[in-house]
Amino acid sequence: MFDNLSEKLQEVIRKASGNAALTEDNMQDAIREIRRALLDADVSLNVVKPFIANIKEKALGEAVLKSVKPSEQLVKIVYDELKELLGGEYKPLNLNSNPSFILMLGLQGSGKTTTSAKLAKKLKEEGINPLLVACDIYRPAAIKQLNVLADENNIDFYTLEGSKNVLEIIDNAINYAKEKNNGVLILDTAGRLQIDTEMMAELMLIEKKYPVNEKLLVIDSMTGQEAVDIARNFDEQIGITGIILTKLDGDTRGGAALSVTYSTKKPIKLVSTGEKIEPLENFYPDRMANRILGMGDVVTLVEKAQKAFDEENAKELEEAMLKNTFSFEDFLKMQKQMKMLGSLEGILGMLPIKGLNKDDRQKISHEGEKQLKKIEVMISSMTKEERKNPDILNSSRKKRIAKGAGVSLDEFNKFIQQFDMMRKMMKGLGGFKDMMKGKNQKAAQLNMINQANKMKHKYRFR
Predict the structure, then answer these.
(1) Last residue of a domain, one of 252, 276, 292
(2) pTM of the model
(3) φ, ψ dihedrals at 269, nearest 5°
(4) Given 4, 135, 151, 233, which is the most exposed site by the fewest CB atoms within 10 A?
(5) Rounded to an integer, what distance in angstroms lies between the CA atom of residue 291 and that of residue 300?
(6) What is the pLDDT of residues 165-222, one digit of tens each?
């Protein structure tokens, strides 16, 4: 998401670095380019106008520091405005009652049912026992879909067969939740092809009868500026408390995210990517502003690592590293855990690597993942004993493995050399355990950045 906008804004800032100071003349060019970048990103004109006005006022006002470089001043000004445009600060879900009620809203096709399951999975990982309640009395397929998703992810599910009364369904679900000790009821309400009176009347009845904690509107980020109209209509009629943006990875422009919060004054609370049932992610305006400006999001990456890495496996890997007993099997385990962080391109997007654009990320990601797959094949061609003990690989074994993996002997020998170098480096590494526990994060972050920089220089000019 935001790839196009990010590249254009970073280009504006690079141009500003050649100026001795921010003046009215050189700022006109920068502001013109920023305006064009926002409009190209499908940001609403009603949002662009005040955004540009604020940047211009700050850039030419008394707040500009003479001791700071123009490009740094511009980055700070644009960052502050982007952060405010995206909501200012992180707004957590309000789940302060037991049970808590989350009313899921959205038009048909917005991904509301899938998002309900993703939300339930997120809450369950956080130690909350959620209940998915099928409140779509018009589409049996929606009930079936929610039931299947609940079963696949081991989440409690409730429906009242044959009932056409949504209030009756919720009443029975509350009793069911008491038996199952569910702390949060996620009400997957009916969607429509368009907002209509009947739809809103049903939602108002639910809101009036039950102490709803959150009214979350699910919006497909691919809808662009139309998302603003949808959000406004729902907010005017029922008063939403927050927004969930889906398919962030499918929208390279990002206009919906930049427009919807400003237009409704309601925060984006959660976001999701893809169709798989992965937990929703909290939305942090400051981190997103950093990513748009090419400053990365290492905090989120480290948080993902803490969740993805199995503590017991991490301890075993650390011991293998420090004792120089790191094997090919350990390498595969590490690779499996790294995959849980997401794609290599996504990881690179969270690292603050100066000058690394979308094309660079894709090139590095493609080359890196192709190489990792090839390594997997080479290791798979080894015997169990060879995978556990790299030191027994003699000339005949290497020839056999290379032939079995379909690579040249030279290519296999290069991999072995690189693996041996990695083992030697690992022997001197400390702090891996600390990183897993959330300590020494700064050192972990610097290590990730250095590794990404090495990859950039390795593949960029091929």
Answers:
(1) 292
(2) 0.69
(3) -95, -35
(4) 151
(5) 11
(6) 999 999 999 999 999 999 999 999 988 777 778 888 999 999 999 999 999 999 988 7
